[in-house]
Amino acid sequence: MPMERSIGEVVLDLQNVSLAFGGVKALTDISFDVREHEIRAIIGPNGAGKSSMLNVVNGVYTPQQGSIAFQGRTFARMSPRRAAEMGIARTFQNLALFKGMSVLDNIMAGRNLHFRSGLLAQALRIGPAAREEVRQREFVEHIIDFLEIQAHRKTPVGRLPYGLQKRVDLGRALAMEPRLLLLDEPMAGMNVEEKQDMSRFILDVNDEFGTTIVLIEHDMGVVMDIADRVVVLDYGRKIGDGAPHEVRANEDVIRAYLGAAH
Ligand SMILES: Nc1ncnc2c1ncn2[C@@H]1O[C@H](COP(=O)(O)OP(=O)(O)OP(=O)(O)O)[C@@H](O)[C@H]1O
Question: Where's the ABC transporter domain (predicted)?
Fold first, then answer.
């Protein structure tokens, strides 16, 4: 049974974050927070700074100013290693899967890279490592069932339709048992039916695993359907923040969207 949805305390809190690449200001004085169990969307026209924002959260980019607090600990910067250790996982706009490997092995790889202890023993399949391998595999099988991709377990990922590849990418991130899941355009390039499926899986992950989710999404309809709160960026600045119906009625947001070629 799905858990009762209840949004909790602030788990991620960005304060006055600014990031520039040489003369290009990707983010200017951005503050926003994410609450436990929330689905938080980041939207905005092309080049608004959405991907940069995710890369600040998972430690790939170091902001010149500002701070990031995750689960009560405040940092001037997050390193990718620390982000992973603290349970922040992400999917990518361009899939980061091993195309020649099976669905099962891709998701397993996501788990092994994260829980990397005793890899040599695991490779040799001896003693406790053999039991550990069984336990890890059970968890991965659970994800495969959950995402309804059992029929494709052994299929090389590169042979699957794009929508299913995106689902495997979600599975790879879930294998890390994240506390915070960052999704970079999880519906990009999908048809309507695939978008509906992905929306449902994101809602189910949020419900059944209790995972807090931050996602970048271009499709306003999807955002309105699944997000609890939305941050709107434009030219690296925050121009809106609130419930979907609030940001949709925000004059600055309407102007940014009407002015942008979409
Ligand atoms: N590594 C980088 N080096 C230089 N400039 C960068 C880099 N990454 C992003 N930028 C610049 O920062 C700005 C914000 O880019 P970003 O990719 O974060 O926007 P976005 O909202 O994710 O765009 P899109 O919707 O097109 O993916 C852009 O002007 C971009 O050219």
Answer: 12-260
pLDDT class for 256, splitting at 50, 70, 90?
confident
Q: Ligand 1: which residue has its CA nearest to atom 28?
A: 47
How far, in Å, from the CA of 34 to the mean position of ligand 1? 22
Task: Give the model's pLDDT for residue 113.
Answer: 66
User: Ligand 1: does its nearest atom lie under 6 Å from the Cβ of 21?
Assistant: yes
Give yes or no for residue 48 having a pLDDT over 60: yes
Residue nearest to ligand 1 atom 25, measured at CA: 46
Non-local (6+) Cβ contacts of 21 within 8 A are none
Question: Ligand 1 within 6 A of 24 CB?
Answer: yes
Q: Mean pLDDT, to the nearest integer, of 181-207?
A: 93
The backbone region for 185, taken as left when phi is positive above 0, alpha when psi lies in -120 to 50, beta otherwise, is: left
The Å distance, Cα 56 to ligand 1 centre, comes to: 12
- Hey, what are 226's tokens? 């699944």
Q: For residues 165 and 197, what is the distance between their CA atoms, to the nearest angstrom?
A: 13
Q: What is the pTM of this model?
A: 0.89
Alpha carbon of 130 to ligand 1 centroid (Å): 44
Q: For each of the domains in the chain, give its residue range(s) and CATH number, in order of start.
A: 1-87+179-262 (3.40.50.300), 100-177 (no CATH)
Atom of ligand 1 nearest to the CA of 53: 18
Q: What is the ipTM, given to two decimal places?
A: 0.94
pLDDT tens profile 122-133: 566 666 667 777
